[in-house]
Amino acid sequence: MWGAPTLEPPVWSEPVSPPGRMVPEPWLLTSSRYDNDTPEVWDTHAHHEHELIWSGGGVMTVEAEGQLWMVPPVLGIWIPAGVPHRVRAESGSVSFATCFAPERTDIGWDGIVGIALTSVLRELLLYNMNEEMPADLRLRLQRLAVDLLRPVQAASLDIRMPADARLRGIAERIVADPADDRTTQEWALRLGFSARTLTRGFLRETGLSLTQWRILVRIRTALIEIAAGRPVTVVAGRLGYANPSTFIDLFRQVTGHTPAVYFRTFSTLDGTELGLEGQRRR
Prior knowledge:
- Helix 1 runs antiparallel to helix 2 and helix 4 packs across helix 5.
- This protein folds into two domains: 135 residues, Jelly Rolls; 107 residues, Arc Repressor Mutant, subunit A (Orthogonal Bundle).
- It contains ten helices and eleven strands.
- 35% of the residues are buried.
- By secondary structure, it is an alpha+beta fold.
- The termini are far apart.
- Strands 1-8-3-6-9-10 form a six-stranded antiparallel sheet, with helices on one face.
- GO terms for molecular function: DNA-binding transcription factor activity; sequence-specific DNA binding.
- Keywords: DNA-binding, Transcription, Transcription regulation.
- Pfam families: HTH_18.
- This is AraC-like DNA-binding protein.
- InterPro entries: Homeodomain-like_sf, HTH_AraC, RmlC-like_jellyroll, RmlC_Cupin_sf.
């Protein structure tokens, strides 16, 4: 009887995350899902692991290194380990955070980048959240997911936020309501200084005039709307453009492509229309 085995699982065999870490050995990654019934803000923080922030629908923004990234369903934002960042998810959105163990994840880039959320990569990350899976199968799945990570041009995603408190107040109002069509003069009167001073301030803080910066915000918002399946004409109207061709011209100036061509470049990565099918399934 002294040698009778215990029925309790041995503690040493259980995967345990190191202090401050999300991914236990021997795994490469782990994901969390957040259903945001109300607006949710994760204040500035940093992780010991790399993080991929991606959307299952709705409006999400990521702020890091003085820039704001909007997260459409076809793209994720890669935040390297140790980089402070802030995340906001609007009411009704579904957000995901996938953490990657740096010492077990072989990537070929540095810094914050956009990652193409192909339908294959998205489904692998979702399937990995299934707890019922043999360990060897999970490892193979995770290795394949890491192999499928592909950075894309982040220039079409990031928006530099002004640091000056007064200018930032304007910027946050425009981000919250991109269709707001108040002129530079009207914003300046609200703050109590001249339109020239406001323009110089935005140029100094963001590299753009207020008008140019607002156009950028509108185009970034359009990425989310169009990826969610809304027609370009509807999106143009929601953003304050009575003439859709004006919106399409601005979209081309910012991204280098018309909306149709822009999203086609992502669909050809794996032969499917990204974001739309996956969102309908959920």
